[in-house]
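Quick one:
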Amino acid sequence: MSEAFEEKTNSLALAGMITGIVGMVGLILCCCSPIITPLVSIGWFGLFGLAAAIMGYMAKQQLAASGGEEKGQQMALAAMVLGGVEITIAVLGVSFFILMLTGLIALPALDSIYSSFN
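Output:
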């Protein structure tokens, strides 16, 4: 008699997908909340994206090495995609924050230059 072959789910793929979902929900909640400082929290939740992308990549490698004994290809891919999106949002958010601070610092100097021409 043949035993039923039961595929095991890769735990790293599952953890990466959960981390990616938590990071994305955190980004959405923090950006929509006036209580939590959105630009600062974007950088922190970008770390969730980095962790999700790394876990998804490592899970892909483990799944390839398992030779089909484990499942979780879609979860690993979801972790990598969510992680990439979160990293992109975090980089854009932090860049916008830096440009905003640079503009606020340069504004008085530009105002004095402009007023000297009048």
